[in-house]
Design a protein that fits this description.
Helices cover 66% and strands 8% of the residues. The chain is mainly alpha-helical. The chain has one domain. A two-stranded antiparallel sheet has the order 1-2. The radius of gyration is 15 Å and the shape is globular.
């Protein structure tokens, strides 16, 4: 459930910032919100392995081999794959919690990007 908490917190942070942008850029605020989400997710994941949501959930993304921060390209690939799968990816994850003894160690976007989610130190 830490993954779900991380997603909720990240969207909450982006929502607050997007709401603050509305008075400045009325019709473009939604686009700015998406750009902000991408920047937050990709840049913070690439260099720190965490976003505000992952920090709150005490998890981080690392390279599967070596354990360091993923880097820019794996973080970008991971984020794009998560966005492509969207709610379906979250639904599959929640189903795996219901029908398996434990959460899957790695989601498919992590396998494709060469990353994994681990507890934060």
């Amino acid at each position: 459930m830490k993954r779900v908490l991380a997603i909720v917190v990240d969207w909450f942070v982006v929502g607050i910032i997007s709401t603050a942008i509305v008075p400045v850029a009325h019709e473009w605020s939604g686009l700015y919100g998406w750009v902000l989400f991408l920047l937050l997710d990709v840049v913070l994941t690439a260099f720190y392995g965490q976003t505000p949501g992952r920090y709150a959930a005490r998890i981080r993304v690392v390279r599967a081999h070596g354990g360091g921060p993923p880097g820019l390209w794996p973080a970008l690939l991971r984020t794009i794959l998560v966005l492509i799968s969207g709610w379906l990816g979250l639904f599959v994850y929640l189903l795996s919690l219901r029908y398996a003894d434990q959460a899957p160690r790695r989601m498919w976007w992590d396998a494709a990007a060469g990353t994994q989610l681990v507890p934060a130190a």
